[in-house]
Design goal:
The relative contact order is 0.14. Strands 3-4-5-6-7-8-9 form a seven-stranded mixed sheet, with helices on both faces. It folds into two domains: 147 residues, Fructose-1,6-Bisphosphatase, Chain A, domain 1; 109 residues, 3-Layer(aba) Sandwich (D-Maltodextrin-Binding Protein, domain 2), CATH 3.40.190. The protein is of the alpha+beta class and 268 residues long. Helix 1 runs antiparallel to helix 2 and helix 6 packs parallel to helix 8. 35% of the residues lie in helices and 25% in strands. The chain contains nine helices and 14 strands.
């Protein structure tokens, strides 16, 4: 099990290297000159994803050579049994919001989390365009954006809710979101789909969004940002209300106040 000294070293390492990884993305984003490779279905990756992933894993391995990695660009399949009980596992999304990035939309982010047995110990997310850096760890209370502590919203009224959702690469999973929205959308103020689970969950943590729903996620989409919601006073479960962990594909995150109300609707 990682100790306090190593956790502090992980925090300091991420403070140093994640903004540098952001420089890689920013350069490609501004120059609009990067290759694209198609994955399965409608998913794809860019040269920027790969370069950022390689930079982060190499830098982390220099300091923590015995640690394991689960990253979007290197995961070979979706059988992650070997990782579920792993200690000292780095879960990395080098670019969450690839469609936004590829189309010149600045809503994307890097996500890095250090996880042990499915529990996040340190998490950071960074948007290199807005220069917003989110960080949380087991060493201190709360979650911080650019050094300032943030909290989930205090929204209590259903009719005042802003809900964010998104659409899975696996097309059949999108029908889950359609069904949840059918049940809840007529009761709330606004539904948003902004194209980055990392950024959207961070917005729940800082009170800009009250609820987030998604089906068909990967661990690298949520390992850091769902942790932010929890550390900011919110609640994260499966959509059916059962316990959630970073290896689950579906997520229901809220400001906690509205969790039961929204949960009752989507499960009605």
């Amino acid at each position: 099990m990682i100790d306090r000294r190593e956790l502090l070293a992980a925090e300091k390492l991420l403070e140093r290297i994640v903004p540098k990884a952001g420089d890689i993305l920013r350069k490609h984003y501004q120059e609009r000159n990067f290759s694209v490779r198609q994955k399965e279905g409608v998913d794809f990756t860019t040269q920027a994803d790969v370069e950022t992933d390689t930079f982060l894993t190499n830098e982390i391995a220099k300091i923590f050579p015995k640690h394991k990695f689960l990253t979007e660009e290197t995961a070979k399949n979706e059988d992650w049994t070997e990782f579920k009980d792993a200690e000292n596992l780095w879960i990395i999304d080098p670019l969450d919001g690839t469609i936004n990035f590829s189309r010149g939309e600045p809503n994307f982010a890097i996500s890095v989390a250090l996880v042990t047995r499915g529990k996040t110990l340190v998490g950071v997310a960074y948007n290199p365009i807005s220069d917003d850096y989110y960080a949380a760890s087991e060493l201190r209370e709360g979650v911080y954006k650019n050094g300032e502590r943030i909290f989930v919203s205090k929204t209590e009224e259903l009719r005042e809710v802003t809900l964010a959702c998104d659409w899975a690469w696996g097309l059949e999973k999108r029908l889950n979101v359609v069904e949840w929205l059918r049940k809840v959308s007529t009761h709330i103020r606004q539904v948003k789909s902004m194209g980055s689970a990392v950024v959207d969950l961070a917005k729940v943590a800082e009170g800009k969004v009250d609820v987030y729903l998604h089906s068909g996620l990967k661990s690298w989409d949520v390992a850091a940002s769902a942790y932010f919601v929890q550390k900011a006073g919110g609640k994260v479960t499966l959509p059916n209300g059962e316990d959630w962990n970073v290896f689950e594909q579906d997520i229901f995150a809220s400001n906690r106040i509205l969790h039961k109300t929204i949960g009752d609707l989507i499960n009605s």
